[in-house]
Write a structure and sequence with these properties.
By secondary structure, the chain is an all-alpha fold. It is about 75% helix and about 0% strand.
């Protein structure tokens, strides 16, 4: 049986994970928090709180948001079961994702979506994946250069 603190932290991590997905979906569509707030009938500050996981978003409001950004509602719940089994790993991912500036995410998505060739998109994903993996190793630069060249 898990202690109460652990269950509370798990629940909080799930809210943060859903919030990160809300943020990513919003940025992918090129919407700002003010626009989302107006469409959902809430303030942009409330949108910020949802995105940070500070406040939990209700199911009806999440459904309304999913329709607005044209994402399937299931998108926001994928990976939630893994949070329990990979608790510490997700904690690290959440911390990292909150450090990425919105402008960077928006620019990456904007330009990536303009690439029509699926092979090029796959290569970009692989390069990005290899780069991120190499940064977690001791000799990241050597590994990365070897994989790209």
């Amino acid at each position: 049986m898990k202690p109460k603190n652990s269950i509370k932290k798990l629940s909080q991590n799930k809210s943060i994970l859903i919030g990160n997905k809300i943020r990513l979906a919003r940025l992918t569509r090129g919407y700002n928090q003010t626009f989302i707030g107006e469409k959902l009938g809430i303030t942009f500050q409330q949108v910020q709180k949802y995105e940070k996981g500070t406040n939990r978003i209700s199911a009806p409001k999440l459904f309304q948001f999913a329709q607005l950004v044209r994402y399937p509602i299931a998108y926001f719940f994928t990976d939630l079961l893994e949070v329990e089994s990979k608790y510490k790993e997700f904690e690290e991912k959440i911390k990292l994702s909150q450090k990425v500036p919105e402008k960077d995410i928006y620019k990456l998505n904007k330009f990536f979506l303009k690439i029509s060739n699926s092979n090029i998109r796959k290569n970009i994903i692989n390069i990005t994946k290899n780069f991120s993996n190499s940064l977690n190793s001791e000799d990241g630069q050597t590994k990365l250069v070897g994989k790209i060249c």
